[in-house]
Amino acid sequence: MPETNATSISSFWDAAAASFDEEADHGLRDPRVRAAWAERLRSWMPHSPADVLDLGCGTGSLSLLLAELGHRPVGVDLSPLMVEQARHKLAAAGFDVAMMAGDASDPPAEAGTSFDVILSRHLLWTLPDPEDALRRWVGLLRPGGRLVLVEGRWAAPAEPGDDRSYAVEPESLPWMGGVGAERLLQALRPLAVDSRVEPLTDPDLWGRPIQDERYAVITFV
Predict the structure, then answer these.
(1) CB-based burial label for 182 (10 Å; 0-12, 13-18, 19+)
(2) Where are the strands (E) in the chain, listed by range?
(3) In the prediction, which pLDDT does 172 show?
């Protein structure tokens, strides 16, 4: 990722870190929301213990669920303040998990180079070259490994000038506003042995009913 973009994006998410977990699907503080995500992760993962790279890990909520399920997560996020919260969250729960600041589109070598699973949730829209990132991620998977991509196409992406606007110009992010399942499958076909789409319409996952496209793609390589 270009350094100027990385700096702007890191600052954007650093500013969001303090309130990030207030969203039901971020902090997973509601027991129903937490249970819904735990059940989905259980169904998407191979038998534990698996080595899982959680890219764009944010404050570590999914990494914590993975650790509780018996897996070995490693988290990477561009925002140092998000990573700091993730470290505290995992440590407070009694888990010694590597959580590090870095570019999720090109994970740092210290995160590892061989995984059973690469997980990302609502990350691809933030990347200037998401298809290049997908190719890199596949290269980090062991034979028979899988990508688990939780994505969507938002009904109302932020407009430039809106106080929710992102940290870089929208035209530099080809999947700004999210990516539809068919477009993501198209990008994955040259990289995958098999992919399946699972709709994520259960309100318990989000803490509310949703109207836009939400799904997971599980891709085997």
Answers:
(1) exposed
(2) 51-55, 72-77, 99-101, 115-121, 141-153, 194-199, 213-220
(3) 84
Residues paired with 73 in a beta bridge:
52
Other C-beta atoms closer than 10 Å to the C-beta of 79 total 24
pTM exceeds cut of 0.85: yes
**CA–CA dist 27, 187 (Å, integer):** 30
pLDDT at 1: 66
* pLDDT mean values, one per 10 residues, the chain (221 residues): 76 95 97 98 97 98 98 98 98 98 96 97 95 97 97 66 59 91 97 96 97 97 92
In whole angstroms, give the CA distance from residue 160 to residue 120.
Answer: 25
User: Taking the mean position of all CA atoms in its chain, how far away is CA 97?
Assistant: 17
The DSSP secondary structure of 177-197, one letter per residue, reads: TB--HHHHHHHHGGG-SEEEE
Question: How far, CA to CA in Å, does 55 sit from each of 59, 106, 202?
Answer: 11, 10, 23
Residue type, 82: M
Per-residue model confidence (pLDDT) at position 162: 42
Prior bond of 108 cis (ω within 30°): no
β-pairing, 115-121 vs 141-153, is parallel
CA 29/CA 24 separation, integer angstroms: 7
